[in-house]
Each structure stands twice: as C-alpha cells, then as structure tokens.
Amino acid sequence: MILGLEQRQHAMLLCGPKTEASMKLSTLLIAATCSTALFAQTTVTISTGPSNAMQSYYSMANGAVSSPALAEWDIAIEVTGIAGSILANTANGVRVYKAPYTIAQWAMVDTTGLASTWPAQYNSETNWSAGAFNQGLSSAFDLGWGTYNPVTHNIPGDSCFVLMLPNGAWKKFRVDGFTAATNTFAFTWADLDGGNEQSGNLLRSGFPGKDFGYYSLTGNAVVDHEPIADTWDLLFTKYIAFVPQPVPSYYPVAGVFMNRQVSALQVDGIPSASADYWGQPFSSDIDVIGYDWKNFNQTTFMWEYAADRTYFVQARNGDIWKLVFQSYGGGANGNFTFTQERVGIAGVDARNNTVGFTLFPNPSQNGSVQLVMDAPVTGGTVSIHDASGKLVAQQRLNGSASTAPQTINVQALQPGLYLVRMSGEGFNATSRLVIE
User: Fold this and answer.
1) Which of 294, 342, 337 is nearest to 322 (CA)?
2) Region 206-220 average pLDDT
3) What is the CATH number that goes with domain 10-38+349-435?
4) pLDDT reported for residue 348
5) What is the chain's percent helix, strand, coil content, to nearest 5?
6) Neighbour count for residue 222 (Cβ, 10 Å)
7) Which of 24, 259, 396, 397 is 20 to 30 A off residue 50, Cα-Cα?
8) Nearest 10 degrees: CA dihedral of 91, 93, 99, 104?
9) Exposure pattern of 52-80 as b/e (b: 16+ CB <10 Å)?
C-alpha cells in the first residue's frame, strides 16, 4: 500500500549523449543543467507490514495494486507457457527436499539421509520459471518433478519430495502430473508414514491473465493470491536468497522482484541526479533490484544504503522509470521508501540514439527553438510528444546534409515539459524541451 506521497517539480533542460563539438556549442548557446526526468519526482512508501507479512504488488504508473498475506499459500504453479514452474513459499517456512525415490516408490519414502545428504531446494532468485521443485534438471524436457511430453503436451510426474510446512509438520509430496486435455495439475501429499494422504488439483484456466495459481497445503485449498499480470511491475516481498556475507548461506531477506516483461538496469558510482540509462543493456533477471541496495550494520544496528546507486526500470507498458531507494523500515513495519520518476515513454525510447542534437533556447518562451545536430543528416522528422506520450507536433527537417540550426515551430504548445524525437533513415535521437 502507498503510505505517503511527496512531490517536487524539477526544472527540465536538454540532456543526452553529446559529441565534444555539440558540448562546446551547448556551452556557447545556453548554460544548461542536464536531467533525465520527464515528470515530477515522487517519493513513495510501499509496505509489506510488520515482519514482512504481506507481499505487495506495485505498478510504476498506478501505484499499489494489492498486498495479500504471504502466509496464505504454500506452493505456486505456473499457469502460462509450458515451463511448469512450481514455487515453494520458502519465505514463510516451507522447506523442499528432493527424495531419492520415484513416484512408483511412493510407499517406500523415508527420510534416512535427509539431514546429511539431501540438499534443500530453493526458488531461483533470477527466473520465475525455476521454482524450488524445478532444480537439478537433466534434459531440456525435465522439469524437476516430471518430464514434458512434446507429443501429448502432458507432464507426467516422476519424483517424490519431502516438505516441511510452516507449522513444522513433515510431509511427503508428489506432483502426479499435468494433463493438457483438462488443463489441470494434480498433486498428492501425506504424512511420512503414509497417513493423512490428501490430494489437490489446480486448474490453469482458473487464473486467467495471471502468472501463477496458488495453493495452501495446510488448508487444502486453491488461493487466488496475485493480481492480473498486466497490472503490476514490481513485487515487494520477503524471500530466501543466497547471501555471501558474513557466512555464505541461504537466508531470509526483504527485497524487490520484477514481473515478467519487466527489465531493469543498475547504475553504480554515479550520483543519481546525473545517472542515465542510454546505451546500456537492461536485464530481465527478476532480482536486478533485489535486496542488496541495503545492508544492516551489526555494529551500529542501523540500515545502511548503497551510495550512488540508481535503478532504471522498464515497465510492462514500455515506459522507463528511475528509482532511487531511500530507506527500509526493517521488520518493524516492512516499509520500502524510494523516489521514482518516469524518464522514458513507451515507443519514444532514447536508449538507441545514434545522433545527438541540441535545442535552444531551452526553456523556450518565444514560440520557436533552434535544433542543432551533432553530425550531418539528410532529411528526417522531428516529433514532439507531451508528458502522456501523445504526439502534439511534427515537422520535417531540412533535406540537406548539414549541421546548420533548423527552426522548430513550437508556438502552439502550452507551457510544460515535452519529449522531442528526431528520426530518419539510420538515426534516432531524443531530447527534452521545456516551454514556459
């Protein structure tokens, strides 16, 4: 949930990659302060509650989406594609061990050797499609709990697991399989001695538009836990991570995962006010943000934060946002506080610039601006978009290959911030313009 909002407006001037010549020209024409911001910077607090008892789904554009209880599910089954990922709620205490038994040996399962030779299995920190039940794969069609049949599209189960549930109960567990005809996963669990055997089913089509369907083994019930995939970008949650310090081990942490079709870039060593994302690769690993932007100092018992660390997040709709984390409230309240500002509009992305240009005067007050290119180009179009991404003006460039200033008519534009895009054959550049 959003607990607080604080807004401040930035004065916006041209910023972008420039050649030495264009930088000199800019110095002569206008003393400009660069910034990547397209809109007002906003300070946001998202809460996962005391002891991180909630998982908070967040939209970069629309804010908090939902904050369901972390403890309401034990396993989550992927309901898109054919990856067959099965997550375990390890953050809530579920532990997963793959037993050295096949489903045919279900009645023989015991835990001899569990403590010494059975490694615990965890959800991947980088990929939603590699859950705790999907580890130790031996082939392209091996899913860890069963093997995909490319002819029938069924996934017959073949492995047994031993689970410890959050209430401390030990269970043996198997995924009986996925049946394509009914679009259903079936699974069975029981006490280690075979008593109290129960079975469950999860219908993939019961979760339209979502990434996972959830199930409570303790309650033997389907759980509708996460929102529609298109409505959220980030998940604030507790999870189990491999932590290298002080002793390499798996440990519960609080951090941020990204949804599918969301990517991000971490920029270090540059003051956040100057950090940019142009020309740098974004990653779809879900833990690009993760937990390590903060560290708990065991001497001062205070949270410390990585200096000069900035995240750029490309949301599901293609917009690019700049995030800088400010504070974390710890287990007392589970509050994550950060600033965010939209710095790129879907379809008008500035990361692939091949030609730079300068606009002056910027801000403009007299109805026109001069555009000067870093390198000669022949023809092309200048498009001007408002803060919502709407095209509000367009003008053809002079057809000659020249770096001479060209006049752009902005007389019809209302005061505000605009994105100016220059495009043509072999070049594509974007900058910002303020109309006063």
Assistant:
1) 342
2) 96
3) 2.60.40.3080
4) 54
5) 10, 45, 45
6) 17
7) 259
8) -100
9) bebbbbbbbeeebbbbbebbbbbbbbbbb
More confident residue, 12 or 239: 239
User: Which pair of tokens denotes residue 141?
Assistant: 């069609």
Kindly report, as residue ranges, where domains of CATH 2.60.40.3080 are found in the chain: 10-38+349-435
Q: Which of 291, 236, 293, 225 is CA-nearest to residue 259? A: 236
* Token pair listed for 436: 């006063």
Residue whose entry in the numeric block shows the structure tokens 């599918």: 260
Residues for the chain: how many in total? 436
Preceding omega of 361 cis (within 30 degrees of 0) = yes
CA dist., res. 389 & res. 348, Å (int) = 8
The amino acid at 194 = G
Q: Token pair 């615990």 is at which residue? A: 120
Question: Which helix (DSSP H) or strand (DSSP E) does residue 420 occupy?
Answer: strand 416-424
Q: Which residues of 247-281 are buried (b: 16+ CB within 10 A; e: fewer)?
A: eeeeebbbbbbbbeebbbbbbeeeebeebbbbeee
> H or E element: which one contains 20?
helix 20-29
The tokens 């002819």 sit on which residue? 151
- Long-range Cβ pairs for the range 410-414 (8 Å, 24+): 410/364, 410/367, 410/368, 410/369, 410/384, 410/435, 411/367, 411/368, 413/384
